[in-house]
Amino acid sequence: MKRSFTAVAGALAAFALVLSAQPRTLNAFFDDFTARWIRANPDQAISTRYFTGPEQARLERELTPQTEAWRQSRVALARDGLTELRGFDRSRFNDTERVSADLMDWQLGAIVEGDKYADYLFPLEQFQGANVNLVAALTISHPLNSDADANSYIARLGQVGTRMDEAVAEAKRMIAKGLFPPRFIVQATIDQMQQFLASPPAQNPFVSVFADRLSNAPNVSVSMREALRSEAVGIVSSQIYPAWRRAVATLEPLLPRAIDDAGLWRLPGGPDAYAYFLRRYTTTDLTADQIHEIGLREVARLEQEMDGIFRQMGRSEGSVKERIEALKKELRYPLTDDGRKAIMADVEQILRDSERRSTTMFARVPKARVVAQPFPRFREANAAASYTAPAPDGSRPGTFQIPLRPDRMTKFGLRSLVYHETVPGHHFQIGLEMEDSALPTFRRIRALGGIPALGEGWGLYAERLAAESGWYDDDLPGRLGELDAQLFRARRLVVDTGIHAKHWTRQQAIDYGIEPSEVERYVVYPGQACAYMLGELKIVELREKARAALGDRFAIEDFHDAVLRAGTVPLDILARQVDAYIKSASGR
After folding, report:
1. Residues 6 or more apart whose Cβ sits within 8 Å of residue 360
2. What does pTM read for this prediction?
3. Dihedral over Cα of 175, 178, 183, 185: its sign
4. What is the DSSP string of 4-41?
5. Which run of H or E residues covers position 317?
6. What would the pLDDT profile of 128-168 be if each residue is shown by its tens digit?
7. Which of 361, 470, 511, 564 has the highest count of CB atoms within 10 angstroms of its CB?
8. Nearest-angstrom CA–CA distance, 135 and 199
9. How many Cβ atoms from other residues are within 10 Å of residue 200's Cβ?
10. How far apart are CA 116 and CA 272, in angstroms?
11. How far apart are CA 447 and CA 432, in angstroms?
12. What separation in angstroms does the CA of 178 have from each of 259, 266, 523?
Protein backbone atom coordinates (compact mmCIF):
# COMPACT_ATOMS: atom_id res chain seq x y z
CA MET A 1 0.00 0.00 0.00
CA LYS A 2 1.28 3.45 -0.90
CA ARG A 3 1.74 5.83 2.00
CA SER A 4 0.25 9.30 1.58
CA PHE A 5 2.49 12.33 1.08
CA THR A 6 1.22 13.68 4.40
CA ALA A 7 2.23 10.51 6.20
CA VAL A 8 5.71 10.54 4.66
CA ALA A 9 6.18 14.21 5.51
CA GLY A 10 5.09 13.52 9.06
CA ALA A 11 7.55 10.68 9.42
CA LEU A 12 10.39 12.83 8.09
CA ALA A 13 9.49 15.62 10.48
CA ALA A 14 9.45 13.19 13.40
CA PHE A 15 12.84 11.82 12.33
CA ALA A 16 14.25 15.35 12.11
CA LEU A 17 12.93 16.05 15.61
CA VAL A 18 14.69 12.94 16.92
CA LEU A 19 17.93 14.03 15.25
CA SER A 20 17.69 17.53 16.68
CA ALA A 21 17.28 16.07 20.15
CA GLN A 22 20.52 14.10 19.84
CA PRO A 23 23.43 15.62 21.76
CA ARG A 24 26.04 17.34 19.60
CA THR A 25 29.06 15.18 18.85
CA LEU A 26 32.52 16.14 20.01
CA ASN A 27 33.75 16.58 16.45
CA ALA A 28 30.81 18.84 15.66
CA PHE A 29 31.75 20.95 18.68
CA PHE A 30 35.36 21.09 17.47
CA ASP A 31 34.22 22.28 14.05
CA ASP A 32 31.78 24.86 15.43
CA PHE A 33 34.20 26.25 17.98
CA THR A 34 37.06 26.44 15.48
CA ALA A 35 34.87 28.38 13.06
CA ARG A 36 33.89 30.82 15.83
CA TRP A 37 37.52 31.21 16.88
CA ILE A 38 38.80 31.92 13.38
CA ARG A 39 35.82 34.01 12.26
CA ALA A 40 36.78 36.60 14.88
CA ASN A 41 40.43 36.69 13.72
CA PRO A 42 40.68 37.80 10.08
CA ASP A 43 44.47 37.36 9.96
CA GLN A 44 44.06 33.71 10.92
CA ALA A 45 41.19 33.22 8.48
CA ILE A 46 43.40 34.55 5.71
CA SER A 47 46.55 32.60 6.60
CA THR A 48 44.54 29.36 6.75
CA ARG A 49 41.94 30.25 4.08
CA TYR A 50 39.53 28.56 6.45
CA PHE A 51 36.20 29.62 4.95
CA THR A 52 34.94 29.82 1.38
CA GLY A 53 32.74 32.08 -0.71
CA PRO A 54 31.52 35.51 0.42
CA GLU A 55 32.49 35.00 4.07
CA GLN A 56 36.11 34.28 3.23
CA ALA A 57 36.15 37.11 0.69
CA ARG A 58 34.91 39.53 3.37
CA LEU A 59 37.49 38.39 5.93
CA GLU A 60 40.30 38.72 3.40
CA ARG A 61 39.65 42.47 3.32
CA GLU A 62 40.09 42.88 7.08
CA LEU A 63 42.94 43.10 9.59
CA THR A 64 42.69 41.64 13.09
CA PRO A 65 42.15 44.31 15.78
CA GLN A 66 44.92 45.18 18.22
CA THR A 67 42.66 46.30 21.08
CA GLU A 68 42.22 45.18 24.67
CA ALA A 69 38.52 44.64 23.94
CA TRP A 70 39.38 42.20 21.14
CA ARG A 71 41.80 40.30 23.41
CA GLN A 72 39.19 40.05 26.14
CA SER A 73 36.69 38.68 23.63
CA ARG A 74 39.16 35.87 22.89
CA VAL A 75 39.48 35.02 26.57
CA ALA A 76 35.69 35.00 26.94
CA LEU A 77 35.35 32.70 23.94
CA ALA A 78 38.02 30.39 25.40
CA ARG A 79 36.05 30.21 28.68
CA ASP A 80 32.86 29.34 26.79
CA GLY A 81 34.70 26.65 24.87
CA LEU A 82 36.10 25.12 28.05
CA THR A 83 32.67 24.98 29.65
CA GLU A 84 31.13 23.22 26.68
CA LEU A 85 34.09 20.87 26.17
CA ARG A 86 34.02 19.74 29.79
CA GLY A 87 30.32 18.92 29.47
CA PHE A 88 30.98 15.96 27.16
CA ASP A 89 31.03 12.37 28.45
CA ARG A 90 34.70 11.42 28.13
CA SER A 91 33.95 7.73 28.49
CA ARG A 92 32.47 7.81 24.98
CA PHE A 93 35.59 9.22 23.28
CA ASN A 94 37.80 7.18 20.96
CA ASP A 95 41.59 7.59 21.18
CA THR A 96 41.84 10.47 18.70
CA GLU A 97 38.94 12.29 20.32
CA ARG A 98 40.47 11.85 23.77
CA VAL A 99 43.79 13.35 22.70
CA SER A 100 42.04 16.14 20.84
CA ALA A 101 39.86 16.97 23.84
CA ASP A 102 42.86 16.92 26.19
CA LEU A 103 44.78 19.19 23.85
CA MET A 104 41.98 21.73 23.44
CA ASP A 105 41.36 21.71 27.19
CA TRP A 106 45.05 22.46 27.80
CA GLN A 107 45.20 25.19 25.17
CA LEU A 108 42.00 26.96 26.18
CA GLY A 109 42.96 26.65 29.84
CA ALA A 110 46.31 28.29 29.10
CA ILE A 111 44.57 31.17 27.29
CA VAL A 112 42.20 31.74 30.20
CA GLU A 113 44.97 31.55 32.81
CA GLY A 114 47.16 33.81 30.69
CA ASP A 115 44.63 36.62 30.95
CA LYS A 116 46.15 37.50 34.32
CA TYR A 117 49.56 37.98 32.74
CA ALA A 118 48.73 39.57 29.38
CA ASP A 119 50.00 43.00 30.42
CA TYR A 120 53.51 41.60 30.86
CA LEU A 121 53.73 41.35 27.04
CA PHE A 122 54.19 44.81 25.54
CA PRO A 123 52.47 45.43 22.15
CA LEU A 124 55.37 47.35 20.54
CA GLU A 125 58.63 45.42 20.39
CA GLN A 126 61.13 44.39 17.76
CA PHE A 127 60.26 40.70 17.40
CA GLN A 128 56.52 40.13 17.21
CA GLY A 129 55.01 43.46 18.15
CA ALA A 130 52.34 45.11 16.02
CA ASN A 131 55.15 46.95 14.22
CA VAL A 132 56.40 43.56 12.98
CA ASN A 133 53.27 41.40 12.77
CA LEU A 134 51.28 43.91 10.73
CA VAL A 135 53.99 43.77 8.08
CA ALA A 136 54.15 39.98 8.15
CA ALA A 137 50.35 39.61 7.93
CA LEU A 138 50.42 41.24 4.51
CA THR A 139 53.84 40.56 3.05
CA ILE A 140 54.01 36.87 4.03
CA SER A 141 50.58 35.45 4.85
CA HIS A 142 48.30 37.30 2.45
CA PRO A 143 47.71 35.29 -0.77
CA LEU A 144 48.37 37.09 -4.06
CA ASN A 145 47.19 34.92 -6.92
CA SER A 146 44.32 36.91 -8.43
CA ASP A 147 42.74 40.32 -8.93
CA ALA A 148 40.58 39.70 -5.85
CA ASP A 149 43.63 38.86 -3.72
CA ALA A 150 45.39 42.03 -4.88
CA ASN A 151 42.39 44.26 -4.18
CA SER A 152 41.96 42.66 -0.76
CA TYR A 153 45.61 43.43 -0.01
CA ILE A 154 44.99 47.11 -0.69
CA ALA A 155 41.84 47.06 1.46
CA ARG A 156 43.81 45.60 4.36
CA LEU A 157 46.74 47.93 3.77
CA GLY A 158 44.33 50.80 4.32
CA GLN A 159 43.65 49.48 7.84
CA VAL A 160 47.29 49.15 8.92
CA GLY A 161 47.50 52.69 10.28
CA THR A 162 44.38 52.18 12.39
CA ARG A 163 45.68 48.89 13.78
CA MET A 164 49.01 50.47 14.67
CA ASP A 165 47.18 53.26 16.48
CA GLU A 166 45.25 50.60 18.43
CA ALA A 167 48.55 49.00 19.47
CA VAL A 168 49.86 52.42 20.49
CA ALA A 169 46.76 52.94 22.64
CA GLU A 170 47.43 49.57 24.30
CA ALA A 171 51.05 50.56 24.89
CA LYS A 172 49.91 53.79 26.56
CA ARG A 173 47.54 51.81 28.80
CA MET A 174 50.40 49.58 29.97
CA ILE A 175 52.80 52.50 30.36
CA ALA A 176 50.29 54.15 32.69
CA LYS A 177 50.47 51.03 34.87
CA GLY A 178 54.28 51.07 34.86
CA LEU A 179 54.47 47.91 32.72
CA PHE A 180 56.92 48.59 29.92
CA PRO A 181 60.16 47.03 28.68
CA PRO A 182 63.68 47.87 29.83
CA ARG A 183 65.54 50.71 28.13
CA PHE A 184 67.50 48.59 25.65
CA ILE A 185 64.30 46.95 24.33
CA VAL A 186 62.63 50.34 23.91
CA GLN A 187 65.70 51.65 22.08
CA ALA A 188 65.93 48.60 19.79
CA THR A 189 62.24 48.94 18.91
CA ILE A 190 62.61 52.64 18.13
CA ASP A 191 65.68 51.90 15.98
CA GLN A 192 63.78 49.26 14.03
CA MET A 193 60.81 51.56 13.47
CA GLN A 194 63.12 54.36 12.33
CA GLN A 195 64.71 52.00 9.83
CA PHE A 196 61.23 51.07 8.59
CA LEU A 197 60.56 54.79 8.06
CA ALA A 198 63.93 55.51 6.45
CA SER A 199 63.16 54.26 2.95
CA PRO A 200 60.93 56.11 0.48
CA PRO A 201 57.35 54.76 0.52
CA ALA A 202 57.84 53.11 -2.88
CA GLN A 203 60.66 51.01 -1.40
CA ASN A 204 58.87 50.08 1.83
CA PRO A 205 58.21 46.32 2.20
CA PHE A 206 54.45 46.90 2.09
CA VAL A 207 54.99 48.14 -1.47
CA SER A 208 58.13 46.38 -2.69
CA VAL A 209 57.08 42.89 -1.59
CA PHE A 210 53.56 43.51 -2.92
CA ALA A 211 54.91 44.58 -6.32
CA ASP A 212 57.37 41.68 -6.46
CA ARG A 213 54.72 39.09 -5.64
CA LEU A 214 52.26 40.65 -8.08
CA SER A 215 54.83 40.33 -10.86
CA ASN A 216 54.60 36.55 -10.40
CA ALA A 217 50.79 36.48 -10.31
CA PRO A 218 49.72 35.40 -13.82
CA ASN A 219 46.08 36.40 -13.31
CA VAL A 220 46.78 40.08 -12.55
CA SER A 221 47.16 42.38 -15.54
CA VAL A 222 50.17 44.67 -15.92
CA SER A 223 47.98 47.77 -15.82
CA MET A 224 46.29 46.63 -12.60
CA ARG A 225 49.64 45.83 -11.01
CA GLU A 226 50.87 49.35 -11.60
CA ALA A 227 47.62 50.97 -10.46
CA LEU A 228 47.58 48.96 -7.24
CA ARG A 229 51.27 49.57 -6.59
CA SER A 230 50.68 53.30 -6.93
CA GLU A 231 47.74 53.09 -4.51
CA ALA A 232 49.90 51.18 -2.02
CA VAL A 233 52.57 53.89 -2.19
CA GLY A 234 49.94 56.50 -1.35
CA ILE A 235 48.64 54.53 1.65
CA VAL A 236 52.13 53.98 3.05
CA SER A 237 52.96 57.66 2.65
CA SER A 238 49.73 59.19 3.97
CA GLN A 239 48.62 56.65 6.59
CA ILE A 240 51.20 54.06 7.58
CA TYR A 241 54.28 56.24 8.00
CA PRO A 242 52.38 58.74 10.18
CA ALA A 243 51.11 55.88 12.37
CA TRP A 244 54.67 54.54 12.79
CA ARG A 245 55.84 58.04 13.72
CA ARG A 246 53.12 58.23 16.36
CA ALA A 247 54.36 54.91 17.75
CA VAL A 248 57.94 56.21 17.89
CA ALA A 249 56.70 59.35 19.62
CA THR A 250 55.01 57.16 22.24
CA LEU A 251 58.19 55.19 22.95
CA GLU A 252 60.80 57.94 22.96
CA PRO A 253 59.67 59.51 26.28
CA LEU A 254 60.18 56.10 27.92
CA LEU A 255 63.94 56.16 27.37
CA PRO A 256 64.75 58.40 30.36
CA ARG A 257 62.21 56.52 32.50
CA ALA A 258 63.13 52.95 31.61
CA ILE A 259 65.82 51.00 33.45
CA ASP A 260 68.21 48.31 32.25
CA ASP A 261 67.02 45.62 34.67
CA ALA A 262 65.52 43.07 32.31
CA GLY A 263 63.85 40.25 34.24
CA LEU A 264 60.22 39.84 35.21
CA TRP A 265 61.38 39.79 38.82
CA ARG A 266 61.54 43.60 38.64
CA LEU A 267 57.76 43.98 38.11
CA PRO A 268 54.91 43.53 40.63
CA GLY A 269 53.70 39.95 40.29
CA GLY A 270 56.58 39.18 37.96
CA PRO A 271 57.69 35.89 39.59
CA ASP A 272 54.17 34.46 39.28
CA ALA A 273 54.01 35.61 35.68
CA TYR A 274 57.34 33.91 34.90
CA ALA A 275 56.18 30.65 36.49
CA TYR A 276 53.12 30.79 34.23
CA PHE A 277 55.17 31.44 31.09
CA LEU A 278 57.48 28.53 31.94
CA ARG A 279 54.48 26.21 32.33
CA ARG A 280 52.90 27.40 29.12
CA TYR A 281 56.03 27.17 26.99
CA THR A 282 57.59 23.99 28.39
CA THR A 283 54.30 22.20 29.29
CA THR A 284 56.06 20.98 32.45
CA ASP A 285 56.02 21.94 36.12
CA LEU A 286 59.78 22.40 36.27
CA THR A 287 60.84 25.38 38.34
CA ALA A 288 63.23 28.08 37.20
CA ASP A 289 65.92 26.62 39.48
CA GLN A 290 65.49 23.12 38.05
CA ILE A 291 65.64 24.40 34.47
CA HIS A 292 68.73 26.46 35.28
CA GLU A 293 70.52 23.35 36.60
CA ILE A 294 69.56 21.29 33.52
CA GLY A 295 71.05 24.03 31.39
CA LEU A 296 74.31 24.11 33.32
CA ARG A 297 74.62 20.32 33.00
CA GLU A 298 74.01 20.33 29.25
CA VAL A 299 76.39 23.24 28.66
CA ALA A 300 79.21 21.38 30.40
CA ARG A 301 78.52 18.18 28.42
CA LEU A 302 78.38 19.91 25.04
CA GLU A 303 81.45 22.07 25.60
CA GLN A 304 83.46 18.96 26.48
CA GLU A 305 82.34 17.21 23.27
CA MET A 306 83.14 20.27 21.17
CA ASP A 307 86.57 20.62 22.72
CA GLY A 308 87.34 17.06 21.62
CA ILE A 309 86.40 17.79 18.00
CA PHE A 310 88.35 21.04 17.96
CA ARG A 311 91.39 19.11 19.14
CA GLN A 312 90.88 16.61 16.29
CA MET A 313 91.14 19.63 13.97
CA GLY A 314 94.35 20.79 15.68
CA ARG A 315 92.62 23.72 17.44
CA SER A 316 93.38 23.59 21.15
CA GLU A 317 94.08 27.22 22.01
CA GLY A 318 91.47 29.37 23.76
CA SER A 319 88.06 28.65 25.20
CA VAL A 320 85.41 26.79 23.22
CA LYS A 321 83.62 30.10 22.72
CA GLU A 322 86.77 31.76 21.33
CA ARG A 323 87.45 28.86 18.96
CA ILE A 324 83.85 28.97 17.74
CA GLU A 325 84.14 32.69 16.97
CA ALA A 326 87.38 32.13 15.06
CA LEU A 327 85.80 29.37 12.96
CA LYS A 328 82.72 31.51 12.24
CA LYS A 329 84.95 34.26 10.87
CA GLU A 330 86.85 31.83 8.66
CA LEU A 331 83.60 30.53 7.18
CA ARG A 332 82.03 33.96 6.56
CA TYR A 333 80.35 35.00 3.34
CA PRO A 334 81.26 38.44 1.98
CA LEU A 335 79.01 41.18 3.37
CA THR A 336 77.92 42.12 -0.14
CA ASP A 337 74.98 41.50 -2.44
CA ASP A 338 76.97 38.67 -4.01
CA GLY A 339 77.55 37.22 -0.55
CA ARG A 340 73.81 37.40 0.17
CA LYS A 341 73.11 35.55 -3.08
CA ALA A 342 75.75 32.94 -2.24
CA ILE A 343 74.35 32.10 1.20
CA MET A 344 70.81 31.80 -0.17
CA ALA A 345 72.10 29.49 -2.93
CA ASP A 346 73.76 27.33 -0.27
CA VAL A 347 70.55 27.32 1.82
CA GLU A 348 68.68 26.05 -1.23
CA GLN A 349 71.25 23.28 -1.81
CA ILE A 350 71.17 22.19 1.85
CA LEU A 351 67.38 22.15 1.85
CA ARG A 352 67.04 20.00 -1.26
CA ASP A 353 69.82 17.64 -0.08
CA SER A 354 68.03 17.19 3.27
CA GLU A 355 64.83 16.26 1.43
CA ARG A 356 66.72 13.44 -0.32
CA ARG A 357 68.47 12.22 2.83
CA SER A 358 65.29 12.16 4.96
CA THR A 359 63.47 9.58 2.86
CA THR A 360 65.09 6.66 4.71
CA MET A 361 64.03 7.87 8.19
CA PHE A 362 60.44 8.93 7.63
CA ALA A 363 57.45 6.91 6.53
CA ARG A 364 55.64 10.05 5.33
CA VAL A 365 56.71 13.47 4.07
CA PRO A 366 54.54 16.54 3.46
CA LYS A 367 53.01 17.16 0.06
CA ALA A 368 53.43 20.92 0.52
CA ARG A 369 56.58 22.57 -0.82
CA VAL A 370 58.96 24.60 1.31
CA VAL A 371 60.93 27.63 0.09
CA ALA A 372 63.63 29.82 1.63
CA GLN A 373 63.94 33.61 1.51
CA PRO A 374 65.77 36.36 3.41
CA PHE A 375 63.98 38.70 5.80
CA PRO A 376 63.33 42.26 4.61
CA ARG A 377 66.30 44.51 5.40
CA PHE A 378 64.45 46.49 8.08
CA ARG A 379 64.03 43.33 10.17
CA GLU A 380 67.51 41.86 9.81
CA ALA A 381 68.97 43.37 12.98
CA ASN A 382 66.45 41.71 15.31
CA ALA A 383 64.73 38.82 13.54
CA ALA A 384 65.36 35.18 14.38
CA ALA A 385 65.21 32.59 11.62
CA SER A 386 61.66 31.31 11.33
CA TYR A 387 59.27 29.03 9.50
CA THR A 388 55.76 29.96 8.33
CA ALA A 389 53.36 27.09 7.62
CA PRO A 390 51.98 26.53 4.13
CA ALA A 391 48.39 27.47 3.37
CA PRO A 392 46.10 24.43 3.74
CA ASP A 393 44.65 25.05 0.27
CA GLY A 394 48.08 24.94 -1.35
CA SER A 395 48.07 28.62 -2.32
CA ARG A 396 51.26 29.29 -0.34
CA PRO A 397 54.25 27.02 0.36
CA GLY A 398 55.94 26.62 3.71
CA THR A 399 58.38 29.53 4.05
CA PHE A 400 61.75 29.59 5.82
CA GLN A 401 63.07 33.10 6.48
CA ILE A 402 66.63 33.88 7.48
CA PRO A 403 68.01 37.25 8.65
CA LEU A 404 71.15 38.06 6.64
CA ARG A 405 72.83 40.27 9.24
CA PRO A 406 76.61 39.97 9.66
CA ASP A 407 76.59 37.35 12.43
CA ARG A 408 74.39 35.08 10.25
CA MET A 409 76.53 35.48 7.13
CA THR A 410 78.60 32.37 7.81
CA LYS A 411 78.56 28.73 6.80
CA PHE A 412 79.11 27.82 10.46
CA GLY A 413 75.86 26.33 11.75
CA LEU A 414 74.00 26.98 8.50
CA ARG A 415 73.19 23.33 7.87
CA SER A 416 71.68 22.84 11.33
CA LEU A 417 69.63 26.01 10.95
CA VAL A 418 68.12 24.75 7.69
CA TYR A 419 67.44 21.29 9.14
CA HIS A 420 65.69 22.86 12.15
CA GLU A 421 63.47 25.24 10.22
CA THR A 422 62.66 23.07 7.20
CA VAL A 423 63.52 19.39 6.62
CA PRO A 424 63.26 17.29 8.71
CA GLY A 425 62.32 19.96 11.25
CA HIS A 426 59.40 22.36 11.31
CA HIS A 427 58.26 21.72 7.74
CA PHE A 428 57.91 17.99 8.37
CA GLN A 429 56.07 18.35 11.66
CA ILE A 430 53.79 21.23 10.72
CA GLY A 431 53.26 20.14 7.12
CA LEU A 432 52.34 16.56 8.03
CA GLU A 433 50.03 17.70 10.81
CA MET A 434 48.24 20.04 8.42
CA GLU A 435 47.75 17.23 5.91
CA ASP A 436 46.54 14.60 8.42
CA SER A 437 42.83 14.18 7.64
CA ALA A 438 42.36 11.95 10.71
CA LEU A 439 42.78 15.00 12.97
CA PRO A 440 40.08 17.59 13.64
CA THR A 441 40.62 20.84 11.79
CA PHE A 442 41.64 22.83 14.86
CA ARG A 443 44.64 20.55 15.26
CA ARG A 444 45.60 20.45 11.59
CA ILE A 445 45.76 24.22 11.28
CA ARG A 446 46.93 24.89 14.86
CA ALA A 447 43.94 27.13 15.36
CA LEU A 448 44.72 27.65 19.05
CA GLY A 449 48.43 28.16 18.52
CA GLY A 450 51.55 26.05 18.60
CA ILE A 451 53.21 24.37 21.57
CA PRO A 452 56.92 25.26 21.50
CA ALA A 453 57.97 22.38 23.77
CA LEU A 454 57.02 19.95 21.03
CA GLY A 455 57.35 22.17 17.95
CA GLU A 456 60.74 23.64 18.84
CA GLY A 457 61.75 20.45 20.61
CA TRP A 458 61.17 18.62 17.33
CA GLY A 459 63.17 21.23 15.41
CA LEU A 460 66.13 20.76 17.73
CA TYR A 461 65.70 16.98 17.59
CA ALA A 462 65.86 17.25 13.78
CA GLU A 463 69.26 18.92 14.09
CA ARG A 464 70.48 16.16 16.37
CA LEU A 465 69.04 13.45 14.13
CA ALA A 466 71.06 14.71 11.16
CA ALA A 467 74.25 14.38 13.20
CA GLU A 468 73.31 10.94 14.54
CA SER A 469 72.55 9.79 10.99
CA GLY A 470 76.01 10.55 9.65
CA TRP A 471 75.16 13.69 7.67
CA TYR A 472 78.31 15.36 9.06
CA ASP A 473 80.72 12.43 8.70
CA ASP A 474 82.88 14.35 6.20
CA ASP A 475 82.26 17.78 7.71
CA LEU A 476 83.80 18.42 11.13
CA PRO A 477 83.09 22.18 10.98
CA GLY A 478 79.47 21.31 10.19
CA ARG A 479 79.35 18.93 13.15
CA LEU A 480 80.71 21.68 15.37
CA GLY A 481 77.99 23.93 14.02
CA GLU A 482 75.38 21.36 15.04
CA LEU A 483 76.85 21.03 18.53
CA ASP A 484 77.05 24.79 18.81
CA ALA A 485 73.33 25.01 18.00
CA GLN A 486 72.67 22.52 20.81
CA LEU A 487 74.98 24.49 23.11
CA PHE A 488 73.11 27.66 22.21
CA ARG A 489 69.81 26.08 23.36
CA ALA A 490 71.41 24.78 26.56
CA ARG A 491 72.76 28.24 27.33
CA ARG A 492 69.26 29.58 26.75
CA LEU A 493 68.01 27.53 29.71
CA VAL A 494 70.63 29.17 31.89
CA VAL A 495 70.18 32.68 30.53
CA ASP A 496 66.37 32.81 30.40
CA THR A 497 66.06 31.65 33.99
CA GLY A 498 69.05 33.77 34.94
CA ILE A 499 67.44 36.95 33.59
CA HIS A 500 63.92 36.40 34.88
CA ALA A 501 64.52 34.60 38.18
CA LYS A 502 68.13 35.21 39.21
CA HIS A 503 68.52 38.95 38.47
CA TRP A 504 71.04 38.50 35.65
CA THR A 505 71.82 41.59 33.59
CA ARG A 506 71.78 41.83 29.82
CA GLN A 507 75.59 41.95 29.82
CA GLN A 508 75.87 38.84 31.98
CA ALA A 509 73.76 36.97 29.43
CA ILE A 510 75.90 38.24 26.54
CA ASP A 511 79.09 37.30 28.38
CA TYR A 512 77.70 33.80 28.88
CA GLY A 513 77.70 33.32 25.10
CA ILE A 514 74.35 34.60 23.81
CA GLU A 515 74.29 37.31 21.12
CA PRO A 516 72.56 40.59 22.06
CA SER A 517 69.51 40.20 19.78
CA GLU A 518 68.82 36.79 21.30
CA VAL A 519 69.12 38.10 24.85
CA GLU A 520 66.62 40.79 23.91
CA ARG A 521 64.28 38.13 22.57
CA TYR A 522 64.29 36.32 25.93
CA VAL A 523 63.51 39.58 27.69
CA VAL A 524 60.51 40.17 25.41
CA TYR A 525 59.25 36.55 25.53
CA PRO A 526 60.06 35.14 28.97
CA GLY A 527 60.15 31.35 29.13
CA GLN A 528 59.88 30.66 25.40
CA ALA A 529 63.59 29.95 25.00
CA CYS A 530 63.35 27.13 27.55
CA ALA A 531 61.00 25.09 25.37
CA TYR A 532 63.58 23.97 22.79
CA MET A 533 66.01 21.84 24.75
CA LEU A 534 63.49 20.55 27.26
CA GLY A 535 61.34 19.37 24.37
CA GLU A 536 64.26 17.77 22.56
CA LEU A 537 65.46 15.98 25.68
CA LYS A 538 61.96 14.55 26.17
CA ILE A 539 61.76 13.29 22.57
CA VAL A 540 65.16 11.62 22.89
CA GLU A 541 64.13 10.11 26.24
CA LEU A 542 60.98 8.67 24.66
CA ARG A 543 62.93 7.34 21.67
CA GLU A 544 65.38 5.51 23.87
CA LYS A 545 62.50 4.17 25.95
CA ALA A 546 60.92 2.79 22.77
CA ARG A 547 64.23 1.37 21.54
CA ALA A 548 64.81 -0.44 24.85
CA ALA A 549 61.26 -1.79 24.99
CA LEU A 550 61.06 -2.97 21.38
CA GLY A 551 64.60 -4.19 20.73
CA ASP A 552 64.73 -5.65 17.19
CA ARG A 553 61.18 -4.44 16.53
CA PHE A 554 62.23 -0.81 16.89
CA ALA A 555 62.30 1.12 13.60
CA ILE A 556 63.26 4.79 13.58
CA GLU A 557 60.72 5.66 10.87
CA ASP A 558 57.93 4.15 12.98
CA PHE A 559 58.97 6.12 16.05
CA HIS A 560 59.09 9.31 14.02
CA ASP A 561 55.66 8.54 12.63
CA ALA A 562 54.27 8.05 16.14
CA VAL A 563 55.65 11.41 17.25
CA LEU A 564 54.53 13.27 14.14
CA ARG A 565 51.05 11.71 14.17
CA ALA A 566 50.68 12.94 17.74
CA GLY A 567 50.76 16.44 16.29
CA THR A 568 51.07 19.54 18.43
CA VAL A 569 50.51 18.39 22.01
CA PRO A 570 51.96 18.99 25.49
CA LEU A 571 54.84 16.69 26.41
CA ASP A 572 52.78 14.54 28.80
CA ILE A 573 50.29 13.75 26.01
CA LEU A 574 53.19 12.96 23.66
CA ALA A 575 54.51 10.48 26.24
CA ARG A 576 51.11 8.76 26.34
CA GLN A 577 51.07 8.51 22.55
CA VAL A 578 54.55 7.01 22.43
CA ASP A 579 53.53 4.48 25.11
CA ALA A 580 50.59 3.50 22.89
CA TYR A 581 52.96 3.08 19.93
CA ILE A 582 55.26 0.87 22.03
CA LYS A 583 52.34 -1.28 23.10
CA SER A 584 51.10 -1.66 19.54
CA ALA A 585 54.55 -2.37 18.07
CA SER A 586 55.31 -4.98 20.72
CA GLY A 587 52.12 -6.88 19.91
CA ARG A 588 50.70 -6.49 23.40
Report:
1. 557
2. 0.89
3. negative
4. PHHHHHHHHHHHHHHHHHSPPPHHHHHHHHHHHHHHT-
5. none
6. 999 999 999 999 889 998 999 999 999 999 999 999 999 99
7. 564
8. 15
9. 10
10. 10
11. 15
12. 12, 11, 16
